[in-house]
Design a protein that fits this description.
homodimer; alpha/beta; six-stranded parallel sheet; 12 strands
Amino acid sequence: MKNDSLKEIAEVIKKAQSIMLFPHENPDGDALGSCSALCRCLRNMGKTAWILTDDDVPANLNFLGEGMRTLDENIIEEPDLCICVDCGDPGRIEKRYEKFRAGRKTICIDHHMSSGFFCDYNYIDPEEAATGQIIFDLLRELEHKPDKETGEDIFAAVTTDTGDFQYSNTQKKSHLIAAELYDWGVDFNKVSVEIYENVRPEKIMLKNCAMATLKLMGGGKGAMVSVTQEMLEKTGASMDESEGLAQDLRSISGVEYSAVLKEYEEKKIKVSLRAKRLGNVATMAEALGGGGHIKAAGCTLKMPIRQAEETIEKALSSAIKELEQK
Amino acid sequence: MKNDSLKEIAEVIKKAQSIMLFPHENPDGDALGSCSALCRCLRNMGKTAWILTDDDVPANLNFLGEGMRTLDENIIEEPDLCICVDCGDPGRIEKRYEKFRAGRKTICIDHHMSSGFFCDYNYIDPEEAATGQIIFDLLRELEHKPDKETGEDIFAAVTTDTGDFQYSNTQKKSHLIAAELYDWGVDFNKVSVEIYENVRPEKIMLKNCAMATLKLMGGGKGAMVSVTQEMLEKTGASMDESEGLAQDLRSISGVEYSAVLKEYEEKKIKVSLRAKRLGNVATMAEALGGGGHIKAAGCTLKMPIRQAEETIEKALSSAIKELEQK
């Protein structure tokens, strides 16, 4: 399959009047920032446009798409166009997929490696550090007049998905976009404070609890922690506040692979996997029924937490052995 | 006083044969990255150049200036030129100041607000996000041929002093420099992994201990933690591994002011102060005999830790009251 051009996609968008945007489930800064920027642009063009999510979004990302997000599928009865943003897999908009298919036309805009071409029009580029960068280019095709708020959405998308310009996916383009956004009047520090300096003390307590379960394996090359329902009760934190642990593990000296296990329900353990320099967690996640990027991927295990810990420990250990044999 | 131009400073450098570089005490990524880049350039120009420190540097910054750093004052007997880098205050090169003054000529290159003009030639620009950015410009005046290693030094300086392009001091220029460094062949991820993903498990344990002392005040607008000698003994961590706590406190929702107290000796407590949106900790630090930037400053208190905690709690509380009255 081949990508349609952003020019073609812009033409399809221009012809539609009612448009619904679909970020992936458990949306992150890139998904929400990208949707927010695109939705703002569409509304400026005089279109009826909404971002449909199937869950509340994390508190620190609440400013993205504020007033443009909805949980109501019927806010537009029969949308001319449904756009899947930062998501190239129907499974990641599962609960909203029926509505998505009800769009007269569908578009997929994404940068994930494992994305398929499942829409009428598709633009998927795994080279791009963030979907926000593709949206930045698309806005130009849509002749969007630069403004502060849209710039802040784009910055939020790019800075979160590049790990603040530190991950290996960061491109020259990421910095050039950030530099250009200075001319849009963006208040960068405001965005950073919203995203990163909005941590509830409860989250800090949860992190301390989780880090106490730290298990190192394979001579320190693997690291694993768990977040349980019991910890949430004890600290008063919510599960989405366990975000960031994967990066903390990755930061430990010598660790090549890390895993964070989150007990959402008794037999529903979501696992975040990270690789530092050499490993590939996309393969590992796929083998466990999930997917993602080479350095950041995930899966869901339908088993009790202890069993999940054993499964992941085994997967990490064998990945470490493989690394050592290379 | 007025700055000399970088062109003039480059001329002075070109005429010198033996040059010593002086980063500030407890050197950070900007001080060491800037020295490393400049030293590399000077050696490429055929000069005898060394970076003189008065302490070992933090393990995660050890790659900056490797093979160019020394603790030996007499490595050059009578240097033609001494350059104070990322430091505009003789007090921050106190132990090496006599040697500094022994230079036939002296230069100061810095970006701190509280810097004075105490050298023969001075270039101090508080607008610059990092001294590394000034060095980037200076390298151009010195006709330095771009190379990977020097680029990595500059990136380390800029990314650490801008808080990974998140602090309010970050400029369009910071991103444009990072973008240009892609053409120098820099391995950005390598630098990030060195600086940020090199954390000993002992450091994580120390952080957990320190966060257990978290004290919120002024209705959650102030936050304070302490790191004591007892904690170092218990965890096996070193004091420089307590770095990063100030940022952790700043990240708590609602916190405007934060303080990290570090017990170096029984009556030598170093205090890091941070302000988030509205406050000015430079003034607070100066009142306590220290100095720094508006959003990040520090001081040293010569008293026992409990007394220091009281002193800082009082200073934070009155600063919070002032904020509320504004």
